[in-house]
C-alpha cells in the first residue's frame, strides 16, 4: 500500500525525466567541470551589481516589523500595477496583482484559483517540462497541443482538438520556451476567438494562463502583446528570475487581466490572498518585496545574448544543423544530427559540453541550448558541435 498520495505519485511520474536529468547533471558537474554548460538558464557570471546592492540595502531592517509576515503589500502592488499598465498598455490596478514566489508560485496560484480535480489544461508541445507535474499535484491533467512547425506557431486546429468538456485552462507561453517564438497580436486574437467559441460550445469558461517570464528578453526590437490584451479571461504570470538571471531569487507575480468582467475580477481579487496562504504562504521574502523598485529597471545584457545567438546560429548552420531562430528567451532550439537527441547529447558530453536533449520536452529528435553560457564557453564548445555533425555525416 502506498504511503504517498496518488497525486504525489502522478507528479513524480510526470517530473521523473527532468528530475533524473537534473540530478545526473549536477553529479556530472561535481565530478568533472564542464567546458561549456548550455543546459539550464543559470548564471555563468557574477550577479548584476545593482541586484547585489539592492538586496544588501533592503536586507537592513528599518523598523521592528521589517521581517514581519508579508502579504500583497499595497505599495509593491501599486508599483507593479503602474509598471504593467505602462508595459502592457492595460489599466491594471493594485488589487489585480498577487505577489508570488517566482513564476512557479504564480502558476501554482493560478491552478489553485481556477482548477477542480479532474480538470484539464492544454499546454504547448514542445513546452516547459514542469506544467504536467504541477497540474498532477492539484489533481488536474495536462493535455499537450503541438505547435505548428517550422516556426512553432500556435496551431488553432491542434488546440481545438485538445479541448474537451473538462478543459479549464489553455497555457500560452510567450516568448516561448524552448523555441523563442513570440506570438503576434493576430495569433493571439485568433486564439481568443477560438476560446470564446469553445467556451460557449462546452458550456464553461476556458481561461488563458499567459506564462510570460521571458517577456523582457526579446531580440531585434521585437514587440510584445500579452493575451491579457485580447482575451479578458487571462491570468498573467511573471518572474524576475529571468531578466535578472537570478532564478534562485523567487520573486514574481500573478496578474488578473483588467479587462475581465467586473464581478469575476472582484471574486478573484477577494480570494487571491486566501489561495496564496493555502499554497503555503506563497509570497516573496520581505527584502525582495522592498527591493522591487530597485530591481525593476535592472536587466541582463540582451545585446550580449543576441551576439551569442548569432555566433551559434551561424556556426551551427555552417555544419548542417537545422535551428530555429529565436525572437526571445535565452534559448536555441534545433534538430539533433541524426535525430537522436539523447545520443547527440551523450557525444557532446564526452567533450565536456552539455546540452538539454529534447526528450525532456517530448521531442526526442531535438535539443535545447542556453545562451546564458559565457562567450568563452561558446568558443570552447564549437569544436564539439562541429565534430558531432561530422561524425553523424560519416556514420549516420
Automatic annotation (TrEMBL):
Species of origin reads: Amaricoccus solimangrovi
The UniProt GO MF terms for this protein read: pyridoxal phosphate binding; transaminase activity
Cofactor(s) recorded in Swiss-Prot or TrEMBL? pyridoxal 5'-phosphate
> Cross-referenced InterPro entries, in alphabetical order?
Aminotransferase_I/II_large, NHTrfase_class1_PyrdxlP-BS, PyrdxlP-dep_Trfase, PyrdxlP-dep_Trfase_major
Q: Does the keyword Transferase apply?
A: yes
Q: What is this protein called?
A: Aminotransferase
What are the record keywords, sorted? Aminotransferase, Transferase
What family does the Swiss-Prot or TrEMBL record give for this protein?
Belongs to the class-I pyridoxal-phosphate-dependent aminotransferase family.
- Aminotransferase class I/classII large domain residues are 40-383
- The top EC class, named as a word, is transferase
Supply the EC number(s).
Answer: 2.6.1.-
